[in-house]
Specification:
about 60 residues; mainly alpha
Length: about 60
């Protein structure tokens, strides 16, 4: 995998972690939305899907 692809994956993980934390905090502050853990895990699943896509594209 090239250095550029690794950098993109690293940045995607960092930004994704911030998004997951923001989602968890948002639903923690507004419990009527849904359980914080469910939203954070859904965001993490999307992050894993994005990282897998970028990693597989960079491996070619």
């Amino acid at each position: 995998m090239s250095t550029l692809a690794l950098l993109v994956v690293l940045l995607l993980v960092l930004v994704g972690a911030l998004v997951v934390a923001a989602l968890g905090y948002a639903v923690y502050r507004r419990p009527a939305l849904t359980a914080p853990l469910t939203v954070a895990l859904a965001g993490a699943a999307v992050l894993v899907a994005m990282v897998t896509t970028v990693a597989s594209a960079g491996g070619r």
